[in-house]
Amino acid sequence: xxxPEASIPATHPSPYFVRFDIEGLKRLIETLKQExxxxxxxxxxxxxxxxxxxxxxxxxxxxxxxxxxxGRYRLTQRSDRSRFGYAVGPTSWKRFLFPxxxxxxxxxxxxxxxxxxxxxxxxxxRAFVGVRGCDLAAIRIQDRVFCGGANPDPDYVSRRKQxxxxxxxxxxxxQTCFCTSMGTGPAIGDGFDIRLTEIPDGENPYYxxxxxxxxxxxxLSQIDAIQVNESEFAERNAILASAAAQITRHLDPDHARxxxxxxxxxxxxxxxxSRCLTCGNCTQxxxxxxxxxxxxxxxLTTGVAERSRRWDSCxxxxxxxVHGGAVRRSPxxxxxxWLSHKLGSWWEQFGTAGCSGCGRCIVWCPVxxxxxxxxxxxxxxxxxxxxxxx
Amino acid sequence: xxxxxxxxxxxxxxxxLDSNYVDLITGCARNVKFSAGDxxxxxxxxxxxxxxxxxxxxxxxINAPARAPLVLRTASEGEVVxxxxxxxxxxxxxxxxxxxxxxxxxxxxxxxxxxCDADPKLGYDMMRRFAQVAASQLQATRLxxxxxxxxxx
Amino acid sequence: MGAEGNVLVSVPPKEHMAPLPVRVLKSHRELADTWTxxxxxxxxxxxxxxxQFNMLYVFGVGEIPxxxxxxxxxxxxxxxxxxxxGLASAALCATKSGEMxxxxxxxxxxxxxxxxxxxxxxxxxxxLGLAPLRPxxxxxxxxxxxxxxxxxxxxxxxxxALLFEKELHVWRGRFDVQVEVTVDSAGRxxxxxxxxxxxxxxxxxxxxxxxxxxxxxxxxMMRLAARDLVERGVAAENVFLSLERNMKCAIALCGHCQYxxxxxCRDGAVLPYSRVASWLGxxxx
Amino acid sequence: xxxxxxxLAVWKFASCDGCQLTLLDCEDELLSLTHHIHIANFxxxxxxxxxxxxxxxxxxGSITTNHDAERIQKIRQSSRFLxxxxxxxxxxxxxxxxxxxxxxxxxxxxxxxxxxxxxLSTSTPISSHVTVDYELxxxxxxxxxxxxxxxxxxxxxxxxxxxxSVCMDCKAKGTVCVMVSxxxxxxxxxxxxxxxxxxxxxxxxxxxxxGPQGSANTTGLSARLKSVGLTDDQLVRVFRTFxxxxxxxxxxxxxxxxxxxxx
Amino acid sequence: xxxxxxRIDVNYLxxxxxxxAFHLVLRGSEVVDAKLRIYEPPRFFEAFLRGRDFREAPxxxxxxxxxCPVAYQMSAVHAMxxxxxxxxxxxxxxxxxxxxxxxxxxxxxxHVAMLxxxxxxxxxxxxxxxxxxxxxxxxxxxxxxxxxxxxxxxxGREIHPINVKVGGFYRVPSRNELxxxxxxxxxxxxxxITLGQWVSTFDFPDFSFDYEFVSLRxxxxxxxxxxxxxxxxxxxxxxxxxxxxxxxxxxxxxxxLHSVRVxxxxxxxxxxxxxxxxxxxxxxxxxxxxKNAGVWPVCTNPFKSxxxxxxxxxxxxxxALRIVRSYEEPDGPAVSVDPVDAEGFACTEAPRGSLYHRYxxxxxxxxxxxxxxxxxxxxxxxIEDDLRRLVPTMPTDNDxxxxxxxxxxxxxxxxxxxxxxxxxxxxVVRQ
Lengths: 390, 153, 285, 263, 431
Prior knowledge:
The structure holds 5 protein chains of 5 kinds.
Chain B lengths: L3 H7 L8 H8 L2 E6 L4 E3 L7 E7 L1 E8 L2 E10 L3 E2 L13 E4 L3 E7 H10 L1 H26 L8
Antiparallel strand pairs in B: 1-8, 2-7, 3-6, 3-8, 4-5, 4-7
Helix pairs in contact in B: 1-2, 3-4
Chain C lengths: L19 E12 L2 E7 L12 E6 L3 E6 L9 E7 L3 H7 L6 E8 L12 E7 L3 H13 L7 E7 L8 H9 L4 E6 L9 E2 L16 E6 L2 H13 L7 E4 L15 E2 L2 E2 H4 L2 E3 H8 L5
Parallel strand pairs in C: 7-8, 7-11, 8-9, 9-10, 11-12
Antiparallel strand pairs in C: 1-2, 1-6, 2-5, 3-4, 3-6, 12-15, 13-14
Chain E lengths: L4 E6 L9 E8 L2 E9 L6 H5 L7 H6 L6 H16 L5 H32 L4 H7 L1 H22 L8 E2 L2 E2 L5 H5 L2 H19 L13 E4 L10 E4 L4 E2 L4 H4 E5 L6 E5 L9 H8 L5 H10 L11 H22 L16 E8 L2 E9 L5 E7 L1 H16 L8 H13 L5 H5 L10
Antiparallel strand pairs in E: 1-2, 2-3, 4-5, 6-7, 7-8, 9-10, 11-12, 12-13
Helix pairs in contact in E: 3-4, 4-5, 4-6, 4-12, 4-14, 5-6, 6-8, 8-12, 11-12
C-alpha cells in the first residue's frame, strides 16, 4: 500500500490548487456544517490535542505545538499561529469509522423461539478535518480489513462512505514519527477530498488547498481563494522536505516483515515482555488495530438478549481464549503476536503492512516501548546459536 | 509351508537382519498359536519368551482388584510383544492375552541371550530393535496419558 | 458523496453477524457428553463444503463455532455434533427439538475433496475430530470410484467415547474402505486396538506418492500425526489439518482467530500441513 | 410462578456495606428485578429471611474471625452459585493491611479493652475458604456489572465482564492518558477494568480499586513510577490499598518493602 | 408471667447498615438489660492510617462506610486542611456542600422509604411494601437516584467517590454539567415534599424523651462541614475541643462502652439533634412544613425522626438547587496543601450525625495518630436507653409486637454498624 506519490510531491501546481487564509478555512468548515456534516477536528483538551466535534475554526488549536517521545506527550507553545502545527495526538480517526462500542443485534424471545433485529447502520455525514498522511494511510489499511473481504462490515462501509476527508500535510513531525519509512507522509498524494498544506507565516497562516474529489473541488470553489503560485508551491515543498528531514526514526517494512517472522523464539521477546505491561494501550491508540470482541448480554426483566461489539486487544488474555484457557498466556507471546501481526502477517492477510508509521504506540505506551527499536534489535542481534551461549 | 527362517527374515521386526543372524536365531524360535481369550503370559511369571506376531491381536493388560482387567495397549501382526526376557529378573510386567486367534513366533529368551552374549554384534542389533519398540511404546503411552480428546466443539 | 471512490465496496453489505433463528428438528445424544443437533436449514438450504463450520447461537447464552458434521447432499438440515464443554456448548447440547437456535455460516475452508481425486485417502480422526471429517468421508464414499484406497483411522479415549460407532460399523462392512479404530484405554470387552492413533497408520496401505491425508483432532494429535505421515513419505502439502483458535466474528473482521499469518475463519480452519508445520512447533502462537 | 423465581441471597462479612448497597442503588432496576428474582435473604433491605438453598449468593466482605470462617462454609453449602462482590470479598479488602502488621498492636491502638476483641491476624478473601463461582471486582463494585453478573448467572452464561486493564476503558472513552500527558502516577495499566476508567477522566491517576488485571506486570510499572519520582516507600503504599492482599499487589508491596529496607 | 425473666433476642438486625443484634432481658415489664450488640468484625482503620500520606485519608476513610463515604471524605479533608491551616471558600466550598446534599438525599431517602417506612406500615421490607405501594417506592427510588447523581457528578461515583481531594477536587464540574441537574433537582424537590407529607401521616407511638442533642451549628447555614459543636444543654465548643468534652464510659448494666458527654451522660446526634439546634436556619417554607408536620421547632419523639429526615431531604434538594443555580467555576479544582507537622480536627454532619476526625501529621505529611468517632457509636448508649424506656410503654404479652417495635426504635437512629464497629470500645458478642 505504499503510495509513491506520498513521498514525491508533484512538480507543478495543479489547476485545482488554491490558496486561502484562515477565513477560507472558517468558510470551509461552515459549509461542511451547512451540508449536514458533523465536523471532527483537532482541539485541545486535557493537555492534549484530541479529535472532537468542532463547531468552528476557533476551536482548532492555535499556536500549539507538541513534544512526543516514548511514553511522553506534552503540548508546547509555538511562535506562530498555526492551527495544524503539531503531530498526531492520542485520538485516531478509527473511533469514528469503527467505534469502540456498537450494538450488533438484539434478539427478542417469544413463545416458540426468538427473532433477531439489527440496528440501522450509522448514516451521519462526517467531515474529518486535519487527517495526516499517516492517518490517511491508516484509514486505507482499515478499508481493506473492513471492506476488502467477502463479508464487509456494514457499519464501517456506511460510515466510510459518509466521510469527507480534509487531509492536512504534516509540517511538524515529532521524534516518534516514522511515516517516511512506511511511505505514508509527510506529503499526501491521494485518498482525500481536500488536501491542505498549512504555511505558518507568523501571525497569519495560510493554506494551500487541493481538491481530490469532485465534491472537494466544489467546496473549494465556494471559498474565497486564489490559484497557488510557484513560490507558494515551492514553500509547500520546502515545508514537506524539512518535515521529512526532521524524521529520524526508521523502520524498513520489508526487512521488518522478514525479521519478525523468522525470529519467533528470539530472546528479545522475553526482554520486551519484562517491560510490557500488557495494558493494550498500543493497540487502542493504533489507527489500524481492528481487533474486536463481542459481549452477549441478557436482561432477565425484559427477555431481550443483545450482542454488542467492542474494541479488543491481543494483549488481553481473553483474546486467545479457547476451551481450556488462553493460548497466549505469557506477555512475551502477546507482544510477539501484536508486532508480528502489525508488521508481518498483516501482509498475508490484507496485502499491506498494518502500520502507517504514526508512532502513537510508542508515545502512548506507558513505559515507552518502541516498535522500531524492537525490530532493529531483532534484526541485528539474533540469538546466538545455543552452543555459543554462556 | 514356509521355512521358519524365511518367516523370520520376512517379518517386519527383523527387517534388514543379516541372513547369518537369521539362521542363528531361528534355532531359538518356534511357531505358536493361541485362541482368542488364551492367556499368553501372566504378570510376575518368569518371562522365558517373547512373541513376534504373525497374525491376530494380543492385549497387554493389567489386573486391578474389583474391576475388569484394563487393556494398556494392543499389538497386532508385525509387532513384537515382551522384552522382559532381556533384563533380569526376567518376569512379565503385565498380562498378555490373545484377543483373536493369534499365530506368532515364540523366541526362547535364554537361548537368544546366550547367542547375543556370544556375538555382541548380534546382541547390539537385538538391543537396538527392542529399544526402538520400547521407545515408541513409551511415547505412545505418554500421549495416551494426556487424555487429549476433550474439548473440540 | 465524499470519498466514496476510496471505498472498496459499492453494495451496502448486510449485517453478517446476526444469526438466523432456526428450529431444532432433532436432538440426539451421541455420547455421554456429546449431542448431534439437526437444524432446519430453512429456504436457503444447508449448502456447505465438507470441513466448513457454522456459528451457532443459543438465546442469551452465547455463540460458538461448530463444524458441520452432516452429509453435504442433505441440504434440508444443518447437522452439528457438539460436545458439552463450556456454557454455550452445554446450552446447545441441552436444546430440545422444537426449540430455536441461531445459525450463521457456513464459513471457512474445506477438505480438498477435488484435489484429492485420483489419490489414496487417509482420514485420521481423534475424538470429536471425526465430526468435521464425516462430511468428507461421506463424500469420498459416495464418489468412491474417484479415489484410490480409503482408510479411516479413528482414535478415541475409550470405547464408550467412540463417536458415530454404528456408522463406523457400516463403513467397515464395506469392502472398499478400511476402518481402523484404537482407544487410549479399554477394558476386557473391547476387542479392538488399544494405543495411540498414529500407530494405525502402520496398519493401512497407501501409496505415499499419491495420498491425501485429512487429519482432525486435538492440536497435539494433528501435529504428531502430520509429522508421522510426512516421515512416511506423504507430501506435506497433501496433509490437511483443521485448526482451532478463539473465534468471535467468523468473517475475518475481529482478529481473534489469528494463527501464524492466517485468519483461521477465513484462511482455515482446514489448512495444509505445509503451511502450518513451522508454526505448530511455536509455543503460544 | 412465584415459586419458580430464583432465590437470591446477600451476605456480609468484614466490609463497608458499599457493595451490597450497590444493589439498592439500582434504582431503575430494583423493582423490576424483584419480579423475576426472589430476594430471599438480604438483611440490609428486608427482615424477611427465607431459608436456603439459594440459587445465587452474593457475598460481600472478607474473613477476619473464626466465626466468619465457619459461617462462610454454611453459606457455600446452601448456595448453588456463590459470587463474591467487591475488593474485600475477592482480595481481603483494605482491612487486609493488618496482614502486614502486628494485629495485637492494632487492637491495642484502636480498642480500649483489647481482651474483648477476637479476631484473626489476617483478612482473607472468600476464595481462600470456599469455592467461588465468580469474583466481581471493585471497591466498590459497579452497578452495571452487578446486574450483569446476576443476569448472567441466572441465565447460565458467562458474565460479559472483561479481564483487561483500565487503559482499555480509558482509550475507549477517549480520555487522555494522565501518565503520558502529565506524568501522573497511574495504576491503570495493571489494574482490572470495570470502573469505566473513572479516575483518569477526573484528572487523577488510577489507584487500583479493582485490583490487579489478569497479567499485571507490577515490576514493569514500578520502574516507570520510579521514573516519575515515586520512592519505594511510596510504592509500598501504592500497592497496599484496597486490594493489598491480591497476589500481584501483595508481591509488589513486599518487593518494595524489601527494597525500601535495603535503601 | 409477671416475674418471669424473658429474653427478646434479635440476632440479625435487619434494614440497618452492618451487622448488629440487640438483646433485651425483661422481668415483667422491667428491663433488666438492654444491649445493642455489634458482631461486625473490627477493621482497624485508625491503626493502619498511621504511616499513610495525609492525602490518602479521604479515599481510605471512605471505605469505613459505603453508605456515607462522603461524610468520611468531608471530615478527612477538613481535618487535613485544618492541620495545614488552609481554609477552602468560594465555589469549592459550595461544591462540597453540594456533594453532601447528594449524600443526604441518597442516604436519608434510602432510610426513610426503604428501611424505616416499612416499620410504620407493617412490611418486612420496601420490596414487600412495593406490592401495595408501588408508586411510593418507585418515586422514592427516583428521588434517591437524584442524590446519587449529584454524588456521581461531583464525586465521580456514588459509592466511594474518587474526586474528593485535600484542598478541593481533582476536577470540578463545568457550569453546564451542574445546570443539567436543575430539572431533575426541581422534580426531586417536589418528590421530597410528597415523601415528607406521606411520612407525616404515619401513626407514631407516643414516646418522647428530653435528650441532650448535640450537633454542629454554623452562624448562617444549616450545618454540613463547619461550625461549633453545640448542645441544647449549653455546650458550645470548638471542634478541636471535642475530646475534652466527649469520652467513652463504662456503664454497669452493659458490657459495652459508650460515648458520653463528660459530666452529662448519653446524648443524641443525628437529624433530630441537627434540627433541634439549627431549625432557625431553615428556609421559611421548611419551617412551615415542619409546623404542619408537627415537629416544629424541636422534636423529641425519636419515631418522628423519619419526618425530620424527610425534611432534611427537602432541605438538601433546596440547597442543592441554590448551589447549582449560582455556581461559578472556580479558578482551579483545588488549592495546594503542603504537608505540615501539625494536628488537625474536623467534625461534619453525616446523615446519621456528627462525624469527628482528628489526625496528627509529621512534617512529611504522614499520619502518626488518627482518631475517628462516627455518629452511631455516639448514639449507641441513647439507643439502648430508648429500648429501656420504650418497653414499659408496650403491652408485655405480645413479644412479636414488642420485638417489632424495639427494632423500629433502633432503626429510628438509622444506625450504621459498619461505621460504628471500627471504633466502638465495646465487647463484641458472638452468637
